[in-house]
From TrEMBL, chains A, B:
It comes from Dongia rigui. This is Methylmalonyl-CoA epimerase. Keywords: Isomerase, Metal-binding. Residues 4-134 form the VOC domain. It comes from the Bacteria. The keyword Metal-binding applies. Its EC number is 5.1.99.1.
Length: 134, 134
């Protein structure tokens, strides 16, 4: 079911400092910040060649990463995203095994304008998994 | 400096259950467990096409992931590994910026028989980073 690793998302408390760290210290290819008000985050994309790192910073009062940064003030890995061919088929197959899909179980349009779902970390080895229809 | 994402390492409390989750529930390509006594872990490799997930389980009394699993009994993402062309040049460049390299700063031979180093999570957005000479 799961295909490529689309990205690893790292929540960061200071976007400029995080961008400078990846660009200047680690020498990576770092995008400009991209505000995504619908998703409550500003994102910086880091192109690693085979996959991406996404640096996430809260945007607005209701950011989905606000609580995470409250618990992890220095930042940390927030989720990993796997690609799937058919997100509804993937969801139904996962739910049939008893795995929990977050929210109302309906895919939302994610940061890459593709349907996404999140899976409950307690059912997946303590890792928050995003599925994105490739 | 950093190149491809070599792998994401997830520490897991039960290797059989974790392998079944990735193989049966998530439909991924999962290896047999590979004991690596020198590294204090047993590893399962998951081939995602563009990169790998490595499921790590403690092996022996002095496992480097024992304390992490103590803090995260359900498991969790332990580190991410970036490839570099020249690990000594990367180390020296990072140390010159004030970033901390773990241990004595000398590369060890890692799980893939290549030289590796770990960087201090407090200097890298709360993420433990492994560098591996590609």
């Amino acid at each position: 079911m799961i295909g490529r690793l689309n990205h690893v998302a790292i929540a960061v408390p200071d976007l400029d400092q995080a961008a400078a760290l990846y660009r200047d210290t680690l020498g990576a290819k770092v995008s400009a910040p991209v505000p995504q008000p619908k998703h409550g985050v500003t994102v910086i994309f880091i192109d690693l060649g085979n996959t991406k790192i996404e640096l996430l910073h809260p945007l607005g009062a209701d950011s989905p990463i606000g609580a995470f940064l409250g618990r992890n003030p220095a930042g940390g890995i927030h989720h990993i995203c796997y690609e799937v061919d058919d997100i509804l088929a993937a969801r139904d197959q996962l739910k049939a095994t008893g795995a929990r899909v977050l929210g109302d179980g309906e895919p939302k349009i994610g940061a890459h304008d593709k349907p996404v779902l999140f899976l409950h970390p307690k059912d997946f080895l303590g890792t928050l998994i995003e599925l994105e229809q490739a």
